[in-house]
Each structure stands twice: as C-alpha cells, then as structure tokens.
C-alpha cells in the first residue's frame, strides 16, 4: 500500500509540474491572418509576442507557393537555402519550440527570403513558474 501511495504521489507531482507548462502553451499562427507570405514584417510581428518553451509556431501558406526551413544565424542573415529535403512543405507546418534561445526560419522558394523578407526570428524563453 505504501508503494502504491508513493507512486500516486509521484504521478501527481509530475502532473503538477508538467501540466501547467503544457496547458499554458500558445499556438501562434505566424503572420496572424496574413500567414506565411511575402512582403510581411515578421520582425514587427515577433516583437509583439513572448514565445515560451512548449509554444507552437504554425506556418500557413498555399502548398507549393512557399516552404519553411529552420536555419542557423548565417543562413538566416544571408538567406542561404538548406537542402530541399529539410523543408517543411505542408502549407500548415507546426513547429513546437522545445528549447530556449533564438530560432530562425526562412522561405526557400525563389527570392522570397532575400527580396521579399520571408524570414522569422523568435527568441524563446523558459516558462515562468508561479
């Protein structure tokens, strides 16, 4: 009986720690109503939000018109397109922010990144515990 009680207590503690961060996660539609598109100020869009570990970014766009690559700092600044097999291409790509730090995404179609500003940088922070 004591072992069972300890297991239940351990389970409740885990739920008490994990569940708040899961239930408080936010799903951000990148670009809001505009979605993932050319000629949109993603810098301003991201500046107005707080991205927390566990949140999700959803890139919405017409299939075949755009794509999404997760890139490093150099690729972000110079719009260097990674190999095509690394692209998200569903038109409804959901990326969960699993770790804190800066995360960078670009569109690899044509000159969408370099000429039309299809690049997103978000800073992800750890959840605040109350």
From TrEMBL:
CDD domains: Phytocyanin
Coiled coil residues, start to end: none
UniProt signal peptide: 1-25
Subcellular location field: Membrane
Cellular component per GO, a single term: plasma membrane
Domain (Phytocyanin): residue spans on this chain: 26-126
Keywords: Copper, Disulfide bond, Electron transport, Glycoprotein, Membrane, Metal-binding, Signal, Transmembrane, Transmembrane helix, Transport
Pfam families, A to Z: Cu_bind_like
Electron transport keyword on record: yes
Membrane topology: Single-pass type I membrane protein
A biological process term (GO) from this entry: response to symbiotic fungus
Main localization of the protein described in the UniProt heading: membrane
InterPro entries tied to this protein: Cupredoxin (IPR008972), Phytocyanin-like (IPR039391), Phytocyanin_dom (IPR003245)
GO molecular function, one term: metal ion binding
Name the record gives this protein: Phytocyanin domain
Classification of source organism: Eukaryota, Viridiplantae, Streptophyta, Embryophyta, Tracheophyta
